[in-house]
Amino acid sequence: MSIDLSTSVKAALKVLLDTQANLTTTQRRVATGLRVGTAKDNATYWTIATKTRSDIGAVSAVQDALGLAQATVSVASTSVSATVDIVSQIKAKLVTAEESSVDKVKLNDEITQLKEQLRSVGQSANFNGDNWVVLSGSADPSEPKQIPASIIRYADGTFSVGRLSYSGAASSTGPVSTVDARYLIDDRTGGTGGYGVLTSTAFAAQVGAGQTYVMLTNQGGSTSGQVEIGLSASTTNGQIDDMLSVVNAMLGQMTIVGSAFGSLEARINMQDSFAKNMSDTLTSGVGKLVDANMEQEGTKLAALQTQQQLGIQSLSIANASFSLITQLFQNIH
What is the CATH number of domain 44-290? Predict the structure, then answer.
């Protein structure tokens, strides 16, 4: 004769194992904060979340680039503003020079110091090795300054990067006009200074000055025909008038350059705010797909831990009952 009471033990064990499996899942969700942590949890949501996280990383990189661009453009804009102030001071000195009692030589010493400051301000407008107001070396004056500003994912899954730019001259070949002076200083090797407001002779030609006046002669290129604005004891009021006309034309172009930098700086700030909001929105979207409800999971965890304890007790009771019955019948043959 044999008696099999293991059914109750097996049932208690099965309940305990099921509880343990649910408890393990809940503990993982509580620990990671995710209800979809791997593809096996939910393949569709996991795929969407993985792609979106990649986009979030790209947006973060764009935000970093915008931060660098923001600093670079801010430095350039500050440089243009400082340059306008200095050129305005030179203009005031030239007006003063038309007074017959003024020592023009001493006044020229002051103008010389201001011109040196102009070059110093331009060359100092450098952030992370990038200068947006001074051309040097073999730089292409028509090449725009560009910065990554956004990411675009199309419906077909393709991906591209949107950019903001500060436009250079319309062309680096042919006659150079005042509108091509999109920089403060053009010191390019082999150049003539035409793409820098302070080094271009185009302003003198525009106002019909008697000489091709420039505020600064370009360094590194040809200075042929360039006449730096300055005073001597023999400088006539007519020459000063020509210099003033050139300076006024330069100031007009500098306000255009400064306005362009100001507009770009404002656009960068707007794009940075948009990128931050986009990152937050994408992160929130991913969270709705894969994040665990921590309040519910916490409650569930406590309940499963209680069930686990009860399951252990049930299994213990079933085992004890089976052992007792076995002992009662162990001497029956």
Answer: 1.20.1330.10
